[in-house]
Amino acid sequence: MTPIINIEKLRVTFGKGDEEVTAVKDVSFSINPGETVCIVGESGSGKSVTSLSLMRLVEFGGGTIVDGRMTLAGENGAIDLAQADADTMRDIRGDEMGMIFQEPMTSLNPVFTIERQLTDGLRVHRGLTGQAATKRALQLLKEVRIPEPERRLKQYPHELSGGMRQRVVIAIAMACHPRLLIADEPTTALDVTIQAEILALINQLKRETGMAVMFITHDMAVVAQIADRVVVMYRGDVVEEGPVEEIFANPKAEYTKALLAAVPRLGEMRGKAAPEPLRLVGDTAPPKPITPRETPELLLEVRNLTTYFPVKGGPLRRHVANVHAVEDVSFTLNKGETLSLVGESGCGKSSCGRSILRLVEPTSGSAILDRKDVLAASHRDLRILRRDMQMIFQDPFASLNPYMRLSAQVAEPLRNFDLARGSELQDRVAALFDRVELPRAYMRRFPHELSGGQRQRIAIARALSVSPKLIIADEAVSALDVSVQAQVLNLMMELQADLGLSFLFISHDMAVVERVSHNVAVMYLGRIVEIGPRAAVFENPQHSYTKSLMLAVPIANPRDRKQIGDLNFKPIPSPMHPLSYTPEPSRYDTVGPGHLVLREG
């Protein structure tokens, strides 16, 4: 079989002279028609640079293809992409080769509608115009399971959630049925249900069209679900290559063994009473368990929390409907414990966390933090209360000021609350850098000079600076590599054990949630459908949606793959309702100690 892509001795550098950095060294591998090759490795291993070199986009980021061949097989003979001119590459991009980029917000144009961006490639490469192009665009949105696709076509990227934007990027890449699909971390921002369906969809398209897939990821469970062959990269080199079953069953390279050992696996916490740190890449000894707290003490009590967002329409922009983001949510959180909120994109997890902090104003309900009602507090009282509750946002780069040095950003909350000045302020900031295991030399750096994991450590240091009682972590580790994710999670568990911190941990990664949680709440359409101790929810799920969610979790075993027929997910109903709509109150059945399940029907 003739490979679609054959890469031989690829070498890519950045910078010149003394500042030259070699990002990819002597990399060689091939991809056959209908084959999925997964490129795995930590951040900085050269995975994305290799993919950008194939599309000849690396040059726009300051990279130079110094040596090597990248051969694309075609009907009219093979083309060396390393030597192809700009016109040839323009014809190939989007048609012969499609690419799903890692960051959907920066890869979508903010000034064009979703419809315009979906139909661009169809017009250029397929000659579709008008209704035909719109019909195909609508079909693509349905394939990637976007709710209300007709409405989404007319919207702009900023009006969509992160998960929806990622699905749009996937639809654009697959619009012209390319012969090679390059997917750079395509499911990082997606929850397990959407991720499972996207992986099954890519597998189905691969079987039907013979499309080859180059899949870049750090999630070894995803690798097990989709890969035919695996290429393991480390610091710009290929350290191991082979069939997926052989890599998982009998890895040869020490780095591959360490990478597989660091992956949190669903079911590992069965029979364990308390959260347990993850094994770090390079560690040989198993992690030490955390001693559970003996006497639980209530910190946060949320009762009947409801948050609606108004929808305006008509020529006078009147209030015509509401989006029911959070609907009658109640739970409690003890001191020194972690409650995880899980569910699909758009289920209301982030809105719930932001409502408790009053970053968005709730419609009704109460949130009692250490005997003080946050939702009833005046703005002056709320400012004082915010010392006790902090937030770690999903995207650390967006939540840090690009113009401020890191020391100033960590010091800012201390200055705001007048907790320290002068040399004492500098000493406390330095101690916080030590606490999150960052060198003090980084204090004078700016956010763009750090990796994603290091930036997330700065966000944690800033949240810790005012000694809060509660930290809401909104997808705090979803975009991090396996090894960096393990380091950040271990840091959070260590801080919890040392300082008695409570975490409201918002995530879609069920294996991570199982590892760090004391209690778990599953959300769907703004409501908690099941809540209880971690072991009860994971080992004995009762609600039909919780069971579907567990079924969708990718297993790090290539012999246990999920087919699209196994994933019987119904379309997500719209959370938007007319003003006259009155929702039913949430009614729960108790199925075990602290284990509540929403009545269905």
UniProtKB/TrEMBL annotation:
The keyword Transit peptide does not apply. Residues 5-260, 300-550 form the ABC transporter domain. Keywords: ATP-binding, Cell membrane, Membrane, Nucleotide-binding, Transport. It is found in: Cell inner membrane. GO terms for biological process: peptide transport; transmembrane transport. Pfam families: ABC_tran, oligo_HPY. It is a peripheral membrane protein. The keyword Ubl conjugation does not apply. SMART domains: AAA. GO terms for cellular component: plasma membrane. GO terms for molecular function: ATP binding; ATP hydrolysis activity. InterPro entries: AAA+_ATPase (IPR003593), ABC_Ni/Peptide_Import (IPR050388), ABC_transporter-like_ATP-bd (IPR003439), ABC_transporter-like_CS (IPR017871), Oligopep_ABC_C (IPR013563), P-loop_NTPase (IPR027417). Its main location: membrane. Belongs to the ABC transporter superfamily. This is ABC transporter ATP-binding protein. It comes from Rhodophyticola porphyridii.
